[in-house]
Amino acid sequence: MFERLAKSGQEFAEQTKEHIAEYADAGLRTLVIAYREIDEQEYVEFNEQFTEAKNLVSADREEMIEEVAGKIERDLILLGATAVEDKLQNGVPECIDKLAQAGIKIWVLTGDKMETAINIGFACSLLRQGMKQIVINPETPENKALEKSDDKSAAAAAFKASVLQQIAEGKRLLSSSTKNSEAVALIVDGKSLTYALEDDVKDNFLELAIGCASVICCRSSPKQKALVTRLVKSKTGSTTLAIGDGANDVGMLQEADIGVGISGVEGMQAVMSSDIAIAQFRFLERLLLVHGHWCYRRISSMICYFFYKNIAFGFTIFFYEIYASFSGQAVYNDWFLSLYNVFFTSLPVIALGVFDQDVSSRLCLKFPPLYQEGIQNVLFSWLRILAWLFNGVLSATIIFFFCIRAMQHQAFRKGGEVVGLEILGATMYTCVVWVVNCQMALSISYFTYIQHLFIWGGIVFWYIFLIAYGAIDPDISTSAYQVFIEACAPSGSYWLLTLLVLIASLLPYFAYSAIQMRFFPLYHQMIQWIRSDGQTDDPEYCHIVRQRSLSHTTVGYTARFEAKSKSSEERARDH
């Protein structure tokens, strides 16, 4: 606003700046008010140009709107400044602390003055006493003098050089602080951000910002908020989430991978432009730490299980083709092949993707570092995917060779006849259905009636289908005609073989899970362990589990308390 004032309208500019600085130091949100009288002809011309700019659909629409607005927002006369108290919502510091413990990097993009933004940073524990701060602010006396002159290009070059110099100094400070394991905060004002986001500077700026524990960009315009979000998203490849409650946050919400709008007193523009709407900032805690973790685990487990069950089924067919010298003879009936992923194994995996909970919502909130499993991609790494693929091949191998060796030469009926292809196929298929459904039962952490119904109901439905399909005319049921009633069910070896194959197929996974849970537990397994032991309310056990976090917390009041305790211990050792 001060840059847009007329020379004759700056009578109280210095006093107003002093007042604004005092208000900002007190944590108030400030607003400068100025005016200019215009004639009707000037307004009509402006309105036509402004309407034309707003109706553009080209990529430079925002630039055109700013250019047209700049033509009328000039030669203003200063009226004064206002200051309002904008208290933090309830639970904001606690929410930010838990998000920081969860390994989420938090950047603040605000239109407030630097002093107000810093006060908010201290209130939220994004900043703390003793924390090194890198402040990028090019408004030195020399630059201010250049800005007042008519040589705008020289002023812009001086500002950019100052920003580059401060970024270089900040990187040197950051490297020295990293060696000493000290947290550093980056504070940037809007004018510096203008030059920091230019093509030849933004990579250096991003490198500096990523290395800092917290980043606060103050006096940011809506466009700058969107550009910072785009820079982080495109250059780091990280998933970005933007949260805001005002119309000036719309560009940032739309640019981020996930936009969360807060419905409140500042209107509904943010909510209408977002992917998710919440009523208060603190609800972000449950959205991410509880539902975010559950969704990540459910989706990753569901995909891995899909690979497993189809490989376990497909490799039995492949092994039989090798056994039959690739004659093209299918070991299973056509309808067995068609209905495997439709009725017998599909519903349990859907239940897994909808209902499974490895840890309750209360423990998800109590142990925020649990969310780091998703950030580190622990549950959907290539190693885990390949392990499930190997498990599928191993299950298929056990099922096929157990069935082949047990039935190839052994008498199956009282008359001494050995089995035919239809009995071998029905027996192998029964083993596959039992194994993959019981594997699902071993993988699930949270059972509901629906999951019991889908898992055991899928197995029961296989027997019902085998009986019903086998009772149909042999022209339709072909190789499945009466195969269960007349051949499989009366034979004790059929049931015994199913049980042995089931135990042998699940034993490797069960042994691996038991060893991992006992000696190499993942973070969620440690929480499951103390929950089963009833130690979730024991402060000592909870502290031990939190210390096993995958990454160190550098901001939030928990980090502030740890830093204070560490400095107290160092002083005690010095004395």
Q: Topology of this structure?
A:
Blueprint: H1 13-25, E1 29-35, H2 40-54, H3 61-72, E2 77-84, H4 92-101, E3 107-109, H5 114-123, E4 132-136, H6 141-148, H7 152-179, E5 184-188, H8 190-196, H9 202-211, E6 214-217, H10 222-236, E7 241-244, H11 250-255, E8 258-262, H12 269-272, E9 276-278, H13 283-323, H14 334-344, H15 346-355, H16 361-366, H17 372-375, H18 382-407, H19 421-443, H20 449-470, H21 474-477, H22 483-488, H23 492-519, H24 523-532, H25 539-547, H26 557-574
Parallel strand pairs: 3-6, 4-5, 5-6, 7-8, 8-9
Antiparallel strand pairs: 1-2
Describe what this molecule looks like in 3D.
There is one protein chain. The chain is of the alpha/beta class. The protein folds into 3 domains: 2-85, no CATH class; 92-220, no CATH class; 288-537, no CATH class. It has 26 helices and 9 strands. The chain has helices spanning 13-25, 40-54, 61-72, 92-101, 114-123, 141-148, 152-179, 190-196, 202-211, 222-236, 250-255, 269-272, 283-323, 334-344, 346-355, 361-366, 372-375, 382-407, 421-443, 449-470, 474-477, 483-488, 492-519, 523-532, 539-547, 557-574; strands spanning 29-35, 77-84, 107-109, 132-136, 184-188, 214-217, 241-244, 258-262, 276-278. A 4-stranded parallel sheet has the order 3-6-5-4, with helices on both faces. Strand 7, helix 11 (250-255) and strand 8 (258-262) form a beta-alpha-beta unit. Helix 4 (92-101) packs parallel to helix 13 (283-323) and helix 6 (141-148) packs antiparallel against helix 7. The longest helix is centred in the middle third of the chain and has 41 residues, at 283-323. It is elongated. It starts with 12 loop residues before the first helix and ends with a helix. One of its GO terms (biological process) is phospholipid translocation. Its main location: membrane. Keywords: ATP-binding, Magnesium, Membrane, Metal-binding, Nucleotide-binding, Translocase, Transmembrane, Transmembrane helix.
